[in-house]
From TrEMBL, chain B:
GO terms under biological process: amino acid transport
Domain Leucine-binding protein: 28-366
Domain of life: Bacteria
A Pfam family hit: Peripla_BP_6
Lineage: Bacteria, Pseudomonadati, Pseudomonadota, Alphaproteobacteria, Rhodobacterales
Similarity remark: Belongs to the leucine-binding protein family.
InterPro entries, sorted: BCAA_transport, Leu-bd, Peripla_BP_I
Signal sequence range: 1-23
Species assigned in the record: Aliigemmobacter aestuarii
Protein name: ABC transporter substrate-binding protein
Entry keywords, A to Z: Amino-acid transport, Signal, Transport
């Protein structure tokens, strides 16, 4: 029983990171219909920013703020430079553009910074452990659960209580009508990207804290997981992305914990099978939006 | 008209480029990765090799008469692209081809070079089956997985460990086979393997795996894994976080600044690597030379490893005293006890995976402490 509870906690922590990532994809997709595969590179940018801030002698909290700010600026620039010119183009064009942005950034990181991972000195206090009865919870795991909850709450408040948030929700419903109401499309889309940048930054921080280094390709796998999570949840649905993230984390941890040893090498295959099964029963995802209106 | 001029001009350049290799130039084709997942390994190897080549050319070429000319093409860490690039290099007249730090693209390139009768050397592929999969013109330039594993197993037995747990990933031959070779060598010496856990490369989540290890009763005496970044730091952080203090054995993948940046978490970890700079060793001299030339100390053994590939090529071509690819192959295959900067290197009597010295290093207060160095008894090495 203790072990099961511990595994549930593990699932919550992993699912939280996936949820943050999937949410970042969903915020942008819900408005302009773009799956931003360069989202992972925003995580990488955050990692490098934190790394260099620390090398320049900033204390850790300031380095984190610098990292998150750089991620938001990078997301804003990404939209301005790469995605605005193709806004409203077909889904394929948008997708290919995002692949191109991702590939260009990776090659730039490899050839301008370093192909080898650069160590990031994470404060020793983040390696601590919290022990509650028989349960162990690493500091980073704990922080990732708390941060995920805070981010979800904050985003929810933002979307429901502020003008910009309401505009974003309206844009997700019907972009054309939003513009007829006199709201500036560009600022709404830019806001969505900045928020996705912040989400990627937070996820990137948690990811880097766990691995202790930044390397040019580190964004590839997380964005893939986020994509799967967003699909299970229902593309374009924000709550769906969160549900998908937690479900994916849960599936992966439970399979790792309870598959017999001989089947363990096929864990990812089983996880994808479960995802396919979910999609067979809910082809639109768990919490799909009824209609999908694009610009 | 302008266009015609351009075409003429570029044609002239093409002719120039093709003829700039004189009859006595050794043309080395590099089908290695400047971008993609193998770049972190191929780039430092290339930097080390380049340094050696510059030294050779400054001295008038190998044995004073064979200057080296390189053709470098990026493989993007893609096997199909590596084969394509290898074909282009063969067509361009390369007499020796260097392939990436991994068995898969090296096999892809090897299929081309073997058929063309041109020797190929992988920068640092460690899979011992690589030359068997390609043929007698394929070599590697790094201690094989089973050799590293045998050294680690001998150390485990000497340390009095009776039981071990291995953590593997089926995602690469290195992360799967090296711990399994360790298991074979350890069992042959009287140890017992209590279980085998798995992980996915890049996943960074070991919560479920660590919970299983923490629940084992009795605990294994030692845990052996070939996980490297980003998996190794995440694994050890989560393992120690779950209160498991079992000693860890690792392999050369964790010989990186990131590992040493983990502080107390990695205290006491022992891993195998391709070299250790003891006082007065050739490696220490190389590191000093590199630092003087580039202004920064080498951050990975792969730089010295690339430099040693230059030593291998120099010795093989000197012995062959010819630029005929078949003669160069003979030269490599018959090298014995060549003194490189990382230790002695022998190809004679092997199938193409060199016998090289392996160092076992313990992490102590963020620094290296040499545990053992040398080559294991060939009789102890598990068959590939």
């Amino acid at each position: 029983m203790d072990i099961f509870l511990q595994q549930l906690l593990n699932a919550l922590s992993l699912g939280g990171t996936y949820a943050l990532l999937a949410l970042g994809l969903a915020v942008v997709f819900s408005i302009i219909g773009l799956i931003n595969f360069a989202h992972g590179e925003l995580m990488t940018v955050t990692g490098y920013a934190i790394c260099f801030a620390l090398i320049w002698g900033l204390p850790f909290p300031l380095a984190v703020i610098a990292g998150l700010s750089v991620a938001m600026v990078a997301a804003f620039l990404m939209e301005r430079v790469a995605f605005r010119p193709v806004r409203g183009a077909s889904g394929t064009t948008l997708l290919l553009t995002s692949f191109a942005v991702s590939a260009i950034l990776r090659v730039l990181f490899q050839n301008l910074i370093s192909a080898r991972p650069i160590p990031v000195s994470i404060p020793a206090s983040l390696s601590g452990v919290l022990t509650v009865g028989p349960l162990h919870l690493g500091m980073i795991q704990l922080i990732s659960i708390i941060v995920t909850l805070v981010m979800l709450l904050g985003l929810n408040l933002f979307l429901h209580r502020t003008m910009a948030g309401r505009a974003m929700r309206a844009a997700a419903e019907d972009f054309a009508v939003l513009r007829l109401m006199g709201l500036r499309a560009n600022s709404v889309v830019a806001t969505a990207f900045v928020i996705s940048g912040l989400l990627a930054g937070v996820a990137g921080l948690l990811w880097v804290a766990q691995r202790g280094s930044v390397d040019p390709l580190m964004g590839a796998l997380p964005v893939l997981k986020a994509f799967i999570a967003a699909i299970i949840g229902g593309l374009g649905s924000l709550s769906g992305a969160v549900a998908g993230g937690f479900l994916l984390g849960f599936i992966e941890v439970i399979l790792q914990a309870y598959l017999p040893e001989s089947l363990l090498p096929y864990r990812d295959a089983f996880a994808i099978l479960v995802v396919i099964a979910v999609l067979l029963f809910r082809p639109q995802g768990l919490l799909a939006r009824k209609t999908l209106v694009k610009l | 008209m302008k266009k015609n001029k351009l075409v003429l001009l570029s044609g002239a350049f093409a002719v120039l480029a093709a003829t700039s290799a004189t009859a006595e130039d050794l043309v080395i084709g590099l089908a290695t990765a400047q971008t993609g997942g193998l770049a972190p390994y191929d780039q430092p190897n290339l930097a080390g090799l380049q340094m050696k080549i510059d030294e050779i050319n400054a001295a008038g070429g190998i044995a004073g008469k064979f200057p080296i000319k390189t053709i470098i093409k990026d493989t993007r860490s893609d096997s199909a692209q590596t084969a394509l690039v290898a074909q282009e290099l063969v067509d361009a007249g390369a007499q020796l081809i260097i392939t990436p730090c991994d068995a898969d693209p090296s096999i892809a390139a090897g299929m081309i070079t073997q058929a063309a009768g041109i020797p190929a050397i992988s920068f640092c592929a460690t899979t011992p089956t690589l030359p068997l999969a390609v043929g007698d013109f394929m070599f590697s330039n790094y201690p094989a997985d089973n050799v590293q594993a045998t050294m680690l197993a001998a150390h485990a037995v000497e340390s009095g460990y009776k039981t071990a747990y291995i953590l593997t990933s089926p995602d690469s031959a290195y992360t799967l086979k090296l711990p399994q070779y360790f298991g074979q060598a350890f069992t042959a010496k009287g140890g017992a393997i209590m279980g085998e856990g798995t992980y996915s490369i890049g996943q960074q989540d070991f919560g479920a795996e660590v919970t299983k290890i923490a629940a084992m009763d009795p605990k294994p005496d030692v845990i052996m894994t070939s996980a490297y970044e980003p998996d190794f730091p995440a694994f050890i952080r989560q393992l120690r976080g779950a209160g498991v203090t079992t000693p860890i054995l690792g392999s050369d993948g964790i010989d990186s600044p990131t590992t040493f940046g983990l502080g107390d978490l990695v205290e006491g970890v022992v891993f195998s690597t391709a070299g250790h700079a003891t006082a007065g060793s050739p490696l220490e001299a190389f590191n000093a030379k590199w630092t003087e030339k580039t202004g920064a100390a080498p951050d990975t053994i792969y730089i010295a490893n690339g430099y040693d590939l230059g030593n291998v090529i120099e010795a093989a071509v000197s012995a062959a005293d010819s630029l005929d690819p078949a003669a160069i192959r003979e030269g490599i295959a018959n090298l014995e006890n060549l003194q490189g900067v990382t230790g002695t290197i022998s190809y004679k009597g092997t199938m193409g995976m060199p016998l090289r010295s392996v160092s076992l290093v313990r992490i102590k207060a963020g620094d290296r402490e040499l545990v053992a160095q040398g080559q294991p008894d060939p009789a102890d090495i598990p068959a590939p």
